[in-house]
Amino acid sequence: MREVAVVGANMLKFGRYPDKDVVRLASEALLGALKDAGIGIKDVEILVSGNLYQSNAMVGQRIMKEIGATGIPVVNVANACATGSTAFREAYYAVASGAYDIAVAVGSEQMGKMGLLGGGGGSDRAYNTEGVMGTGGMPGVFGQAGAEHMRKYGTTQAQIAKIAVKNHEHGVLNPYAQYQKETPLEDVLNARVVSWPNTLFMCCPTGDGAAAAVLMSAEKARQFTSKPVWVAASVLTSDPYAPRNPTMFDINTVTQIAAKEAYAKAGIGPEDLSMIELHDCFATAELLHYENLFLCGEGEAGKLIDERATYNGGKIPVNVSGGLLSKGHPLGATGVANIVEIVWHLRGEAGDRQVKGAKTGLAHVIGLGSACTINVLKK
Amino acid sequence: MAQETATEKKTNPILPFIKIPENYPEEDAYLWGVKCNACGTKFLGERIACGKCGATGNFEEVRYGTEGELYVFAVVHQAMPDVKTPFIAGIIDLDDGVSVRANVYGLDPEKPDHSWFGKRVKMFSEVTGQDRDGNDVVAVKYKVQN
Question: Coil, strand or helix: which one is B10?
Fold first, then answer.
């Protein structure tokens, strides 16, 4: 495998864009990334598009028609919330394998206000199991996942709420975040319950957005930039058998095996990371991933947030972008945006929220059902 | 002459792994599934291969019992518009070695507590609606035992 660098990175501020369609959002993000890389669409040899809600509608080819249809291979990817990061991985392997020198990954989604409340049921309402036989909806599933940690280790709702306090505090400094508003602990705990133990401010907002990255072989990268960001590992796993899965989705094992593989491939340990952008679709998820990414021992995630170790400036800054809780979670865009955030920090271009001296970053995404991607980037 | 076919009203399970006996409700609905004879893993419903060891064609049917414990739960307050909230969304570990998603009753959804973990529960069935053809649809639920 060849060395691969990220040379261009861009994202749109996540939010609501009712006057634009998803292809326009994706095209704007991609044009920005191409400009950042100093190339044009005619230089691109393969495009990988990540989009979930229009996964049968050839979003990638429509992007090409919007900004310049050159006849290159286009691949459309869907992998639940890991859609964008899976697209990035496909683009990475396209270059790492030696098949192409310049690849782009574009993630996009337009969700409007529909949110993550879907789940269960066929077309006849009488056979919809949601609320009749438990829940398959994301708020409930991630509520249960957090409750399992509470059961095993005595973790409290207030500890989990501190994660929302942190990420919203971080989000204030990120102009690309959908919400830039602090939520003190009492506000988080007193907010209406969406799915216990997660209250409203412990759930990510949904919306529209797009992000794009340009990847190049080492030789090409050196032609176009003096600040390449190297892909040290790009890992994708699926959930192995676990006794309760899929009655209860297992987001832990799938992340743990991805983390082990990513650390081994990158030749580093969690202690070598300058920053992490991880999949905090709900505050409970971030709590679990502290342990799944081996930032602390089993059962110690509550203590880690109590000690503020994951704040910007702490031992291991997590979600200095504000995370999905602040930034928003347009499904297909999320995984690419996490990578864009890390690229900006490694280049020293992250403005007020810059992690000082950032050298190595890890981007993690979970797609429920389940897929896990981990991309490790280094200067 | 137009032929009138009087369609007989049926009782259907909401999910395929719920079995409705001929004499329902005198005999209650029950959960069933298969056990892989190669590795011993149990599943809800039928399968063509084992999701754990990959063995094919080596299953025996299992009728699961009604008792188990509440492993974990969420209390769902916000859902699609036609879903009644709040409800306690449980993961039930059956004593017979499989887990099932279900609504849990007998606890106050406004007062969730760590003490709920591990509560003993017992299954009951209920007609939860009628489908477009007028058939009764049956689901199973769990009640906390005192």
Answer: coil
